[in-house]
Amino acid sequence: MTLAVKNLKFSYRANSVLDLAPVTFEQGKIYGIVGKNGVGKTTFFKTLTNIITNYSGSVEIDGNNVKENPKLLASVGIVLDDMELYKNYTGLFNMRYFGGLRGNFDEERALALAQELNIHESLNEKVASYSLGMNKKLILLISLMNNAKILIFDEPFRGLDKPTVEWFKKYLLGLKQEGRMILISSHVQEDIETLADEVLVLENGKFIEKFDLKETNQSYIYRVQTDSPSKLAALLETAGIKFTSQAENWLTFEITEEVYRHLFKQAVAQDIEFYQIKKESKFVELIK
Ligand SMILES: Nc1ncnc2c1ncn2[C@@H]1O[C@H](COP(=O)(O)OP(=O)(O)OP(=O)(O)O)[C@@H](O)[C@H]1O
Q: Which residues form the ABC transporter domain (predicted)?
């Protein structure tokens, strides 16, 4: 299964938000969609799922146009931050209602998932009485319960407690193994780094960079605070590695893990002490 976006353009009145070159997403992969606040990540997800339809260009699932064939969205699950549930009804009502819209609702599976998410005991209470986290869990449950082949998550971890985030990350990796396609946005670098196979950086309406996080020889940005900045600088210069120096004896440079290991050994041999080491994927620089 593929999800293809072809020359998608969208504006909120005079505010042009998306103007994308063609891009294709494949099954069995997790894609991180990242960018600064307000660049259009949520808008992008809304265009993929017919929440916004007045765009030009096309969104296609296996070559079929989603705007013209909304039934294709039966294979798509989505979680958006501003998603509204029926607050004056119970969690169970919402689960059955949204499940029924799909036509392939498996209540047993949904209840098992509710148990894993630890909201099964609250399903008979009105959603209005739910905490923010419980509300988010119910939205997650609704997106996951239909066995969707394509899953879209806009900031899915916001509002969840740590154990649920850990559970959910493992669950997502399991879904990927099963061959689902997952698109996820998060402002938390670590979430993207631990989950995504590929990261697409959105800026000025376009995906300006794509990073393959599974590439074995990728380089990272290292920041090291050391007791001997001049000795470390000399080491880096000898190795032909460009670096910049910052206040408080921090040095920043971009190298692969293998080169870093070698550099670290050399530093130890020369009695250079590293007080603090920070390692970041390159996409992080683009969204600061
Ligand atoms: N309903 C709307 N009407 C008009 N403009 C909107 C609307 N929703 C979003 N926008 C604007 O569209 C742009 C993209 O917003 P969007 O919410 O898609 O960004 P985002 O990347 O998801 O942001 P964040 O990281 O803050 O969640 C912003 O300039 C925003 O102000």
A: 3-229
In angstroms, what is the span from residue 36 Cα to ligand 1's centroid?
11
Ligand 1 atom having least distance to the Cα of 39: 21
| pLDDT tens digit sequence for 51-60 | 999 999 999 9
Q: How far is the CA of 175 from the centre of ligand 1 (A)?
A: 29
Model confidence at 104: pLDDT above 80: no
CA distances from 174 to 29, 38, 105, 106, 110 (A): 11, 31, 21, 19, 17
**Where does ligand 1 bind, in terms of residues with CB under 6 Å?**
12, 15, 17, 35, 37-43
Residues 230 and 125 in one domain: no
Average pLDDT for residues 180-184, to the nearest whole number? Answer: 97
Name the least confident of 45-59, 93-107, 123-137. 93-107
Closest CA to 140 of 85, 193, 87: 85
Write the ipTM.
Answer: 0.97
Q: By residue range, what is the domain housing residue 78? A: 2-212
Region 167-190 average pLDDT:
95
Q: Given phi > 0 = left and psi -120 to 50 = alpha, else beta, which region is 35? A: left
Compute the mean pLDDT over every residue in the chain, rounded to the nearest whole number.
Answer: 93
Nearest-angstrom CA–CA distance, 65 and 269: 61
Asked if residue 230 and residue 183 are part of one domain, the reply reads no
CA 191 / ligand 1 centre spacing (Å): 22
Closest residue to atom 16 of ligand 1, CA basis: 40
Check pLDDT > 70 for residue 103: no
Residues 115 and 193 occupy one common structural domain: yes
CATH number at 184 reads: 3.40.50.300
Ligand 1, atom nearest to 36 Cα: 25
Count of CB atoms within 10 A of residue 77's CB? Answer: 24
Is residue 186 domain-shared with residue 266, that is, in the same domain?
no
Q: Kindly state whether residues 125 and 236 are assigned to the same domain.
A: no
Which atom number of ligand 1 is nearest to the Cα of residue 155? 27
| Nearest-atom index, ligand 1, CA of 46 | 18
Looking at the structure of the chain, the number of domains it has is: 2
